[in-house]
Amino acid sequence: MGLIKLTKETFKFVKSSKTKTKKDDNQIYNLIINDSIVNVNIRNIKTINAKFGSLAFKENLNHDIGFRFINAKGFNSIGFRQNVDLVFCDRRHQVVELFTSFKPNKMTEYIANSTVVYVLASNSIKYLNIKPKDIVKITK
User: 25-138 has which fold?
Assistant: First the structure.
């Protein structure tokens, strides 16, 4: 076997072993607010493609579905068709900023100490009684 072919086979093996251990992106978590589990299913969104594939251009968002953006310092609702609620949290899962009924095709300002953004259906913040400095996280 030639050196080039052996190298290709080795890289294929390493690449396939990494993809098998990768977590499922479509895994659903439950939302926890101040140590009480709420009946809201949360999906992680890590890339722009995942945002447009699962969240943007949807007709409506239900109150039992939400999305979590990881490593986000701001948010834009480009491509949305309805108002959404936004919850910005820091690395200790504490609520930093709240936006209720955030309109479509708008952008938030830069929030420096934010690491996670939860996108919920409109009026969910009022319904779930989320306030600043609450602890909002997901189940493992």
Answer: Jelly Rolls (2.60.120)
